[in-house]
Amino acid sequence: MSQFTPLECLEHVLRTTDFDAFATNRFARHLEGGADDAVEAARTGITKVFFRLQHLGPSVDASLTEPDGIRKLIYTAVANAARDELRRQNRRSKRSVMLAIEMEVGGASADPHLEAERAETAEELNIAISHISAQNNRMALNVQHLLDHVLDERTLEDVGRAAGVSRTTAFNRVHAAADALRDSIPDLIERRRQERKRAWRKAA
């Protein structure tokens, strides 16, 4: 029989295992914030395990009173937290690409700084669109679906109907193009954010 309660076992495992290093080695290269995001995922996973162990009922799985069982539980929780953060970042990136494309047809701005920013964004975006469209016919088609959806404000159902494919296929093609654009212009959104901050400071 184990000498540990689940919470005592957790304390022992946390003293003897470097979960920050595990998360950094395994997930940092995939996350926008690198090691910082990986360490945050480790802390999130550990916190979830702690609360789970705090609310155990009277019947406790024997594996939760052994270091190996707790260690495995934390590894799984950390991995899930890192994957959740990666999914959130991917969704944010796709939304950012969509916003960048919408800037092309957003009309003139009364703020000259924002108007200059819009023109630079449109120019760089056009270069990225031309670059990925030239890769192959399939990607060119995906980009066209993306532009139809965002610039022409056509629904995914309409995009799919015009192409003779299902809404799901149209969705996949639109987001494949968005992913390719995101990879082609990785600094665009951050540069826009910094330029907007400078414009606000000048106006203040």
Short description:
By secondary structure, the chain is an all-alpha fold. It is built from nine helices and no strands.
Describe the structure.
With 204 residues, the protein is mainly α. It has 2 domains: 6-91, no CATH class; 104-203, Arc Repressor Mutant, subunit A, CATH 1.10.10. 76% of the residues lie in helices and 0% in strands. The protein has helices at residues 6-16, 19-27, 35-54, 67-103, 112-133, 137-150, 156-163, 167-184, 188-203. Helix 5 packs across helix 8 (167-184) and helix 7 crosses helix 8.
DSSP strand count: 0
Stated plainly, the CATH topology of the largest domain is called Arc Repressor Mutant, subunit A
Number of domains: 2
Radius of gyration from the CA trace? 24 Å
Write the H/E string, N to C: HHHHHHHHH
Question: Kindly state the mean pLDDT as a whole number?
Answer: 76
List the helices and strands and how they pair.
Layout: H1 6-16, H2 19-27, H3 35-54, H4 67-103, H5 112-133, H6 137-150, H7 156-163, H8 167-184, H9 188-203
Could you name the key traits of this structure?
204 residues, Arc Repressor Mutant, subunit A, mainly alpha, 2 domains, elongated, 9 helices
